[in-house]
Amino acid sequence: MTKLKAGDNAPNFSAKDDQGNTITLSDYKGKKLVVFFYPKANTPTCTTEACNLRDHYKDLKDQGYEILGVSADSQKKQSNFKEKYNFPYPLLADEDKEVIKAFDVWGEKKFMGRTFDGIHRVTFVIDENGVIEKVIDKVKAKIHTEQILE
User: Fold this and answer.
1) Which of 15, 46, 50, 68 does the annotation list as catalytic?
2) Which residue among 4, 69, 88, 145 sits deepest, i.e. has the most Cβ atoms within 10 Å of its Cβ?
3) Which residues, in sequence order, are CB contacts of 85 under 8 Å at separation 6+?
4) Active-site residue 46, yes or no?
5) pLDDT for 3-37, tens place per residue?
6) Which domains are assigned to the chain?
């Protein structure tokens, strides 16, 4: 699981989003940012989590937050996921896992008796200066916005 914690500087990153635009941490300088990592687009829990953030997007924006979703899915999969559910925020297509590894959310997972490497569902709340304010490593998909704002 991630070794990053509140008070650490967020890792600098650069990756393509669902539209092919290059997104970097410095694009959000002076803004609060929520970066949520999810295992796979269009899977039940990932969809619930992303839709919760969509449904409460105005509440998050009213509190000054920008949102960025990250998975190792291709740009096309991210684009389809975003269009299907009408997400108002960018989804990074981190196929080479550079952002995922920079945030240290790649590692061993257990599911239905199997052990494998994958993306851990972790959310980082980053302040205007690029410092991590909060790490949510026990994400509750249905109430994720509440977890961010509490």
Assistant:
1) 46
2) 69
3) 47, 50, 51, 54
4) yes
5) 899 999 999 999 999 999 999 999 999 999 999 99
6) 14-149 (3.40.30.10)
